[in-house]
Amino acid sequence: MAQDSWPSPAHNSRAVTDTEYEKIAARFSDDGVYGSPSDAAVVSAGTGLQVNIRADVYASLRGHAWTSGTSTVSLPVGANSSGQTRTDRVVLRLDRSTWTVRAVVKAGTPGGSAPALTQQTGDTGVYEIPLARVATASGASAVSVTREELYVGARVRTCTSTTRNPSPVRGEMCFETDTGRVLVWTGTAWKIVYEDSSAIIVDATVSGWSKTADSVIDYQAGTVHFRLGNYTRTGGTVASSTDTRLPVLIPAAYRHKTRTIRALAYITGAKIGSVTIYPANDTSRPGQVWLTSHPQIAAGDAVLPGQVSWVVS
After folding, report:
1. Is residue 43 part of a domain?
2. Domain check: are 166 and 132 in the same one?
């Protein structure tokens, strides 16, 4: 078969068949219901052996639009006298024999799990997505419904950190070309999904101390991984009762908002000390790192803290 494309004047005088339409439209949108799980259930238990599809629901299936209409749709559920509970499924089904999408009840096997979805992608057959599971006990005159809607997703949008979509929908994602970050909109705020800061050196100059190894932050998707440097006392003796600041400062973007972070430090003479990293809301030491519990430290003593992590988003 030679190359072809459609719609085109060169292809069947621009006429497009149902099969050809599905080929181009299937990826226009994800398969699913328009909305989110916070919406009312699409399917609920009806009177007796029935389920109800609520009004004004819209969905897309392989590029075909579907709506439940302006009034509730009731679907019958088969009686069950098998002696075992039966689990059916309510599905949206594209039937290529009629090229229509309809909500239908797909019967399960008593004692078994819910029936598998049929998702045929050729030129014939059917394609289904789930809306709900329906349990019918043996001899029951009513059913119970468990939600199972598949919702249309939001695509990843390319933008910059200053040009994000001002009116995002819940679940929408964006990739910032200027920062390399991937974010998702929760419905109330943008949250970082991925960010790689590479190594950030956070050394500072503090009287009485020198550093023999850099203090380094690695930042990944809202989590700070902090490797404290190695420090040598160059000033006078520090009494065990005196806090002393170390030569490091956490940048504002990487400080914990409210919590004080602590880490252990080894000190010359096989001694142990405690390092305190102050949060953003501290009024006097935001982002500063202090040795707050320690033995007496003399000139020339080394302080070797470990590593610690915290969340900032």
Report:
1. yes
2. no
Residue type, 117: L
Q: Is residue 1 part of a domain?
A: no
Q: Which residues of 286-296 are buried (b: 16+ CB within 10 A; e: fewer)?
A: ebbbbbbebee
Interatomic CA distance for residues 210 and 188, integer angstroms: 45
Q: From first to last of its 313 residues, what are the pLDDT tens digits of the chain?
A: 689 999 999 999 999 999 999 999 998 888 999 988 889 999 999 999 999 999 999 999 999 999 999 999 999 999 999 999 999 999 999 999 999 999 999 999 999 999 999 999 989 999 999 999 999 999 999 999 999 999 998 788 898 999 999 888 888 999 998 888 899 999 999 988 888 777 899 999 999 999 999 999 998 878 899 999 999 999 999 999 999 999 999 999 899 999 999 999 999 999 999 999 999 999 999 999 999 999 999 999 999 998 999 998 6
DSSP code at position 104: E
Q: Record the pTM.
A: 0.66
Residue 114 is classified by DSSP as: P
Count of domains in the chain? 3
Q: Which residue has the tokens 């085109």?
A: 8
Report the candidate in 59, 58, 55 with the shortest Cα–Cα distance to residue 70.
Answer: 55
**Token pair for 253:** 């973007």
